[in-house]
Amino acid sequence: MSTLNQILFQFVHHFAGRFIILDDLGVFFAVYLPYFIAAAFLLLVWEAGEWRQKIYRFAEGAMAAILARGLIEEIIHLFYYHPRPFDFYGFAPLIAESGWSFPSGHACFFFALAMVAWFAHRKWGAWLFVLAIVNGIARIYTGVHWPFDVLGGAAIGIVSALFIHWLMRGERKALFGNGSEGKAGAPHVA
Question: Model-level pTM?
Answer without folding.
Answer: 0.86
